[in-house]
């Protein structure tokens, strides 16, 4: 469905004082859409990676104008071993409201995840997510690398009873992924992911 098209763009800049990030997202169409811009900062503290992101969130409805809100999210990843990681993330802990009236609030979302590198080629991870006033959602995903340039992945989400398949490859510092998810009501949704890593300076 074209009305549910979703786009995301992110950039990260590592520095000696930590890592800075910029994130933008857009979903919907000209009649109704939701967009957000976020500024993030993260750094490594021994075995723990911590980060925080501040967001500007906006809803636009044709004929009614738009409403906006400012909120933040934070998270951390604990590297228990070189192969096993666990993480926690919280979105909108202050329960920011949309617009001047404040009648509609953005949801409070908690997420807890586990990741395991079974080998250099195989990774499996799971996330337990609880959104305010919604049932618990469990996401499970795995990825297998055939070599350093070619890999495939699959996963499922219990909240929507949907699953996805994907494949990708690396080419001159650029990662290209193609995916397809299957929803019981919406059918097949295609997707594409492009990641570029600039060459490291010696």
Low-confidence stretches: none
Major sheet details = 13 strands, antiparallel
Distance between the termini: 46 Å
Order of helices and strands: EEEEEEEEEEEEEEE
Rg result: 19 Å
Summed up, the helix count is 0
Q: Biggest sheet, strands in spatial order?
A: 1-2-3-4-5-6-9-10-11-12-13-14-15
Notes on the structure:
The chain contains no helices and 15 strands. Strand 12 and strand 13 (162-171) form a beta hairpin. The strands form two sheets. Strands 1-2-3-4-5-6-9-10-11-12-13-14-15 form a 13-stranded antiparallel β-sheet, with no helix packed on it. Strands 7-8 form a two-stranded antiparallel sheet. The N and C termini lie far apart (46 Å). The radius of gyration is 19 Å and the shape is globular. With 202 residues, the protein is mainly β. The protein has a domain at 135-202. It has strands spanning 6-15, 18-28, 32-45, 48-61, 65-79, 84-91, 97-98, 104-105, 109-117, 122-131, 137-145, 150-157, 162-171, 174-183, 187-196.
Annotate the secondary structure layout.
Elements: E1 6-15, E2 18-28, E3 32-45, E4 48-61, E5 65-79, E6 84-91, E7 97-98, E8 104-105, E9 109-117, E10 122-131, E11 137-145, E12 150-157, E13 162-171, E14 174-183, E15 187-196
Short characterization:
With 202 residues, this protein is mostly beta strands.
Note the main attributes of this structure.
globular; mainly beta; 202 residues; single chain; 0% helix; two-stranded antiparallel ribbon; 13-stranded antiparallel beta sheet
């Amino acid at each position: 469905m074209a009305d549910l098209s979703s786009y995301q763009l992110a950039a990260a800049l590592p520095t000696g004082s930590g890592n800075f990030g910029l994130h933008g997202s857009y979903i919907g169409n000209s009649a109704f859409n939701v967009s957000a811009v976020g500024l993030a900062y993260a750094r490594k503290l021994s075995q723990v990676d911590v980060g925080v992101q501040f967001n500007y969130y906006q809803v636009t409805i044709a004929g009614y104008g738009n409403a906006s809100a400012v909120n933040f999210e934070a998270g951390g990843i604990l590297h228990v071993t070189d192969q096993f990681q666990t993480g926690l993330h919280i979105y909108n802990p202050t329960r920011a409201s949309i617009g001047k009236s404040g009648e509609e609030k953005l949801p409070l979302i908690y997420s807890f995840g586990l990741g395991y590198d079974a080998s250099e080629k195989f990774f499996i991870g799971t996330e337990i997510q609880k959104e305010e006033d919604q049932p618990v959602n469990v996401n499970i995903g795995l990825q297998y690398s055939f070599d350093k340039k070619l890999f495939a992945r699959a996963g499922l989400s219990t909240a929507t009873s949907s699953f996805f398949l994907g494949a990708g490859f690396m080419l001159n510092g650029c990662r290209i992924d193609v995916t397809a998810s299957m929803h019981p009501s919406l059918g097949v949704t295609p997707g594409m992911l492009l990641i570029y890593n600039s060459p490291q300076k010696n």
